[in-house]
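Bug #77: duplicate submission created two jobs. Keeping one. Sequence:
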Amino acid sequence: RCASSSGGHDDEVSKAERANRAQEIYGTQPLTIFSKIIDRTIPADIFYEDKKCVAFRDVNPQAPLHFLVIPKTPIPRISEVTEDDKELLGHLLVTASQLAKKEGLDEGYRLVINDGKHGAQSVYHLHIHVIGGRQMGWPPG
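Kept job's structure:
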């Protein structure tokens, strides 16, 4: 999830710090909320699924349209991908692009991948935020 517009940045940073500490303590990736969405043990507004990924609407949208594309194979961080992940990563980006088009984001959109503590990653399961439907600002952080 992204930070909310009312001081949510600190909330997301705190979540990222907690998730980073959990990863350091456990040494391996604990089951994430996204794993539970994939296996349907918690609900989500899933609007696309194929053999490799799932897309669902963000519960805390930062724009008129905000959804996530996540791989079914849990990769904790973009910084931990390997050569073997090339096909999956390409599939995620192509899927994000096709879904953005289907959702009417013809004027453009932003793709965001948070990585690690300083990137404010709060869920250690690779995910692409697709955010659009309004003019984005710059710089983003």
